[in-house]
Amino acid sequence: MGLFPKIVGKLHLQTEGTQLDNFACLYVVRGEPYRAGTCVNLNQEETNVGRVSHELTPDLAFTNAFISRKHIIIRKEQDKAVLYDLGSRHGTELNGVELTPHTPYPLNNFDIIRLAKGMTVIHFSYMFADQTLEIEPLSITMQLEIPKLPLEISWEKRECVVEGKRILMSEKEYLLIRVLHEHINRLVPMEEIKSKVWPERSPGAEGFSDVTLDELNALVYRVRKKYGKDTFLISAVRGGGYMLESELKSS
Fold first, then answer.
1. CA 133, CA 18: separation in Å to the nearest integer?
2. Rounded distance, CA 205 to CA 35, Å?
3. Rounded distance, CA 30 to CA 17, Å?
């Protein structure tokens, strides 16, 4: 218990429905000791992210031993959030690309930050809680790394090969998997998914395809049930979009 009250006190954590008053936020997708969906308001000029220790308590402090004590820092530079890897031992990835230490990387909405090969995953946004949150990963693995799955996708044949078994994709399954795969390990906004998966639907009052959240959630559920719950690791940001988190082979 010793260190964690200090962490919570430092973080200015937000709860559901609380209006954030700062220019940007971090949302924990995966990372002990925080529950998925924990929101961190970037209300300082600098926000340090790393591993908690008796000598150091970063602003956002994780307990995983593979996270460096000083792993990354996010600075506010001319109204822009800029990420720096601080020479971490096990590295940092931004949208699947490994970062060069001590190099500035400006952040954008829906960016996904991975620490130590994906053992900790954070979502960045300039949008606030009432617009984007909360994060609800449909499947959160407790493995040290996201494995290379026994899965291949043939787009021409519209089929998946899962552990040697060929499974034909329906039209909607194909369109959903395709749009998520095109942005692998990145958040795909809800509006883009609706327009790509349901192109035949007329625009609704907001100008996007008239598709309900229940329809989209049902399609994601069918994909997980049909292909296996661990075949497609799909994380959802309620009101924001979906992200396919994997290392897939396609042809």
1. 10
2. 35
3. 21
Span 153-211, pLDDT tens digits: 888 889 888 878 889 999 999 999 999 888 877 788 888 898 899 988 777 656 556 78
Give 129's Cβ-side CA count (13 Å radius): 16
Long-range contacts of 223-232 (CB under 8 A, 24+ apart): 223/173, 223/176, 223/177, 224/138, 224/139, 226/167, 226/173, 227/151, 227/160, 227/162, 227/167, 228/162, 229/139, 230/139, 230/141, 230/149, 231/149, 231/151, 231/160, 231/162, 232/177, 232/180
pTM: 0.50
